[in-house]
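It would be a great kindness if you could assist me with a short task in structural biology. Thank you for your consideration; the sequence and its tokens are set out here.
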Amino acid sequence: MLIVLILAIPALLAAGALVINKKVFGIINSLGYLAVLTASAVLLKETLLADSACTYFGFIYLDALSAFFIFVISIVSFAAALYSIGYIKKDMEKGLMTKKKARIYYALFNLFCFSMFFVPAMNNLGMLWVAIEMTTLISAFLVGFYNTKESVEAAWKYIIICSVGIIFALLGTILFSYAYSLSGGVKSLNWSLLAASAGKMDKNILKVAFIFILVGYGTKAGLAPMHTWLPDAHSQAVAPISALLSGVLLKTALYAILRFGIIVIKGVGFSYFGNLMILLGLISLGLSACFILVQKDLKRLLAYSSIEHVGIISVGLGLGAPLAMAGALLHVLNHAVVKSFMFFGAGDIVSAYQKHNMNAIRGVIKALPFTGIMLLLGVFALTGFPPFSIFISEILIIIAAFTNGSYLIAGLLLFFLAIIFGAFIYHFGEMLFGNLPKGMKAAGTPLSAKLAFLFLFFQMCAVGFVLVFIKKDLLWIVQKLFQL
């Protein structure tokens, strides 16, 4: 079973991190995640072509939607493992990390990835809740990894806010189970059983339950106004972990919302689900646009951008048209790739300048030639400039909004995106160009980091070309993913 391989490799690497020499382990770790990426790609192909979902012992449930999210997680995990080799080496050379702490980092890195792979594989919604809580507890150690006042404070804030949110998610899960038991089914939390009986469930209970789910998992996903932990946590975490937090951790919570959302759509109708998703999506977009305009911290700027893109995905899902849903899921992949790319660049900048404040960072292209060029391209990719991948997914959602007659939603999307585009060009234009600070010399980028950048950059450019070949099957793929 491919899923066993995907779950076993991070678990074995977590144990291996504590006993294998650090210099060798970084390479072994990257090769392990390359194997995971290959296995997840094969799993996605098999589930798309399969006539039905695969279940194992009633515990693991794999369909096209879960395989897609596993594939997205595997892409960013491999890139982060690759980038970690040079990044951790530099931290050790600067005395910011000991050999013992580097081993702990790799152990936590692999446990974190294991917990994220665990989320989409779960059939039982109670175990899904446990898996998402596990991602919080493990990643909190990586947020406060440097043991500075700011990082420890961010870690505590992260744990407290997300734990409060997850309590709401637990209440929502219990209400879904209660609604299922009232419909005549045995007591169960298995998603496959609940989804099959959604039409028989009490609609009022489902509506209330989904609000709890949306608030609970929406907190972890970074949907406004439940987003308050996100800028602090993402800005203080180790750079490869910031990429994982923003690129895929937020998506595991979105996956949970989608799973419950499919039950609500089948039981209540699409409009209830859609209206709530659009409302929170637009709030997230508006709030992030305001904070991006006035932001001074580089990593917090990228964190608020994550809130923006989670909002775009939410609006796409809420519109409901096949084109919008295709755009939303494509945006899940595109944002994971591009935001990881940008956090790697931010990690290089912070490491070289020893500053987060954008006002004190100038001449990045001169100081870090390779990273600077990558970031320049990444800024255009992140803000939806053609021909990069995010442009493709955003334009699909906007076209769907206009086609459905949702002109206000389309107008607001374009308005917020224009503001954010201008803000990013201004902020990064100031940092990338200009004169180097006195006494600073140009530095190189480690080979492992270059490979991570190029791996992600290829995907940023390739998505548009791939879409040309699968456009005839787009509706079929959306139907397979959402099981509608």
Summary: Strands lie at 54-56, 60-62. Residues 324-484 form one domain. The radius of gyration is 21 Å. DSSP finds 19 helices and two strands in the chain.
